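Hi there, hope your week has been kind to you so far. Please have a think about how the structure follows from the sequence. I've dropped the whole record in just underneath, so have a look:

_____
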Amino acid sequence: MRINPNSSIRSGYSYEDLFVLRLCIDWLRNPDKYSEIKIQFVPVDLGIKGFALDDVTATRKNGSVEYYQIKHKQNPESDFWDSDELINKGLLKWMKSFFALKENNRICSLITNGQLDIILKKSFKDNHFNLEKIKTHNADLVLKLEEQGYSQLLLKSFFDNFNFKFNQPSKNSFEEELRQVLYKDLKVTKAGVDSLGTWLLFLDRLKLEY
């Protein structure tokens, strides 16, 4: 069987599109919540290269800014997030970007359908990692972060404030959930939703080409 080398990339883009659609639906249902939503946005004058919280940015009308990094897993039931996976997928970049942001009122999050491995679960609760528990169960991870110049104080600040949202819906479940909201709450016709899906697929292809 021939495997499409772009399939995992396309799935990631599709998942990102669904997340953006959910934010837009939330905005439609709550018009006073957001003032703008941007995709692939990099703030100016950060003083760093390779800003890594750029997938989706949503500015609230109260002045707070939400930064999202979206990571889709093709096989979430077997491809778990462990400490090595966190490092390999960008933890150091997320930390660098988090500390470079200048807004006092910022909300930074990883969104993924993937699951934590059994070891990291011991240090995780309510979308946050506990530094003291990481030091107990994943001492090597803390050592790697300290070797990059992060003090205990900075590590605690990051893990206390950065949201790790694991176990998000699968792509199919996510799409069906949004369809039902569009049908029932926003009264969009099936033809309208199908047309939106076709447009999102077109955007995915553009992302792959460029």
User: Anything to note?
Assistant: The longest helix spans residues 7-29. Confidence is low (pLDDT under 50) at residues 1-12, 201-210. Strands lie at 34-39, 56-60, 65-71, 106-112, 124-125, 128-129, 162-165.
